[in-house]
Amino acid sequence: MAETKRLTRRAMAFVLAGGRGSRLKELTDRRVKPAVYFGGKTRIIDFALSNAMNSGIRKIAVATQYKAHSLIRHCQRGWNFFRAERNEFLDILPASQRMSEEHWYRGTADAVAQNIDIVDSYDVDYVIILAGDHIYKMDYEIMLREHVESGADVTVGCLTVPRSEASAFGVMAVDDKGRITSFLEKPADPPGMPGDPDKSLASMGIYVFNWAFLRDLLRADAEDPNSSHDFGHDLIPDIVRRGKAMAHRFDVSCVRAEGAPAYWKDVGTVDAFWQANIDLTNFTPELNLWDNDWPIWTYSESVPPAKFIHDEKDRRGMALSSMVSGGCIISGTEIRNSLLFTRVQTNSWASLDHVVALPYVTVHRRARLTKAVIDRGVVIPEGLIVGEDAREDARWFRVSENGVTLITQAMLDARAASL
């Protein structure tokens, strides 16, 4: 363990948080995907940042690009407790044409390449490249230790997935020692794992490098006119062909309760986002947000406790199988199987069933909402019914493939103007 702690002191986490996340539709119109709210009070990026901090990494950089203001503000407010005098920090690295007046970040690898001088100034031996847009709990110390002990050029974090579902991922073929022998992007016939042909190893987009090796690799890639300057498309396949790439299995480093499955989610669609949030209301959710040993850190507003008022027939403030955050006022509303973020206010004779309501939503009287996602700050008008007539819902709102209705204020304003 002493050696592991020494390794983390010599490592930094570089979080890639510039991707829009267009499959989340209007949820990313005003914010980048890593800044999207999740789980009642956190944002998606908090999982990667918390994993790094809980793993003992105190040097973190976050590269931003698309509509980054919400993300930058969140990091400044919620992650400003690092102390430079203790040689710890969280730096924001916006795309700023540092290398060229013609290019922002051209790809995931280019986001690191444009900041080589900054990473050099951190004086680290190892760099852990992380995606800032996935939900999971992982001890990076374990992966870093494997990387150093194997002498790999790169170690790739890999999920164990059913082979029948692996075509949606970049898939690793590995030998019996875990060395990656090929990398296949969304293959029609994914390779199975040694000893378990019904499972495949899919890339998580997490990479561990020795910084000296990666620095040289990035400089060479930056000069290659045929490269898309991306880790998954260019750098990792090249190392697999010419160097030593090792696979690290997420099952080994996933932080979870004893006997629980390894939890990792890409909440990149409205359906996946809704489902992952609603899953938290289950009796025993697979993702444990109540774990004091591996907390998910975030910015927390100073708000009063949630309040439930009225106790009359058909006008009772109540919530069953639900999560209700601080600052919420549930006034004569029946809430079931729903997740309410900070400062949601609901009014009498309304009902919410399987609803994810982002912060500062107001639901007026007699509204009836089922299987919906409500964007931040939306004001639901009195008597609105959603989730009972898919055709009517689709006239005004976005209805997903699985019947989840996404509601934004712009949609409601357009509806009001047309009625």
TrEMBL record:
Keyword Nucleotidyltransferase on entry: yes
Site (Could play a key role in the communication between the regulatory and the substrate sites): residue numbering on this chain: Q65, W104
Organism: Paracoccus homiensis
Record Gene3D superfamilies: Hexapeptide repeat proteins, Spore Coat Polysaccharide Biosynthesis Protein SpsA, Chain A
Coiled coil: none
Nucleotidyl transferase domain boundaries: 13-281
Listed EC numbers: 2.7.7.27
Entry function: Involved in the biosynthesis of ADP-glucose, a building block required for the elongation reactions to produce glycogen. Catalyzes the reaction between ATP and alpha-D-glucose 1-phosphate (G1P) to produce pyrophosphate and ADP-Glc.
Protein name, per record: Glucose-1-phosphate adenylyltransferase
Residues that, per the record, bind alpha-D-glucose 1-phosphate: Y105, G170, E185, K186, S203
Transferase found in the keyword field: yes
GO MF annotation: an example: glucose-1-phosphate adenylyltransferase activity
Domain Glucose-1-phosphate adenylyltransferase/Bifunctional protein GlmU-like C-terminal hexapeptide: 304-407
A GO BP annotation: glycogen biosynthetic process
Catalysed transformations (reactions): alpha-D-glucose 1-phosphate + ATP + H(+) = ADP-alpha-D-glucose + diphosphate
Family: Belongs to the bacterial/plant glucose-1-phosphate adenylyltransferase family.
Pathway noted in the entry: Glycan biosynthesis; glycogen biosynthesis
Signal peptide per UniProt: none
Pfam families in alphabetical order: Hexapep_GlmU, NTP_transferase
Lineage: Bacteria, Pseudomonadati, Pseudomonadota, Alphaproteobacteria, Rhodobacterales
Entry keywords, A to Z: ATP-binding, Carbohydrate metabolism, Glycogen biosynthesis, Glycogen metabolism, Nucleotide-binding, Nucleotidyltransferase, Transferase
Assembly and oligomerization: Homotetramer.
